[in-house]
Amino acid sequence: MSGKTPSSFRAQPVSAEELLEKVKRELGRYEHPLFDFDARSASGGIEVAIRFKPAGIEVHTYQFLLQPREIEHSQFPWSFQRQLYDCLHDYVIEMFIRNPQMRDS
To answer: Radius of gyration (Cα) for the chain, nearest Å?
Structure first.
């Protein structure tokens, strides 16, 4: 045994605060005229919130959960961007007041 620690092994787990800061740093790289982004610690990981900016229109806040293993992954910036863009797409679709797939109540 050489005494080296495998690169996949972490001596200490990453704290929730460190994970939150990493996600907030990544969110800080994004700015959009229609949406605000935020993150907070949540049970099981970090919850990302997407809020509609314009005042006067009530729209729900879209939220998704990032698992610690996702945040710690070396490809996090790229996987996060893909997930954020996918969630923005879903959020915009959820904003429809009416579409052909909805049934009248």
So the answer is: 18
Smallest Cα–Cα separation from 54: which of 77, 76, 73, 36?
36
Q: Are 48 and 23 in contact (CB under 8 A)?
A: yes
Residue with tokens 């314009």: 54
Q: What is the pLDDT of residue 68?
A: 96
Q: 19: exposed, middle or buried (C-beta count within 10 Å: 0-12, 13-18, 19+)?
A: buried
The one-letter code for the residue type at 17 is E
User: pTM for the complete prediction?
Assistant: 0.81
CA–CA separation, 62 and 16 (whole Å): 21
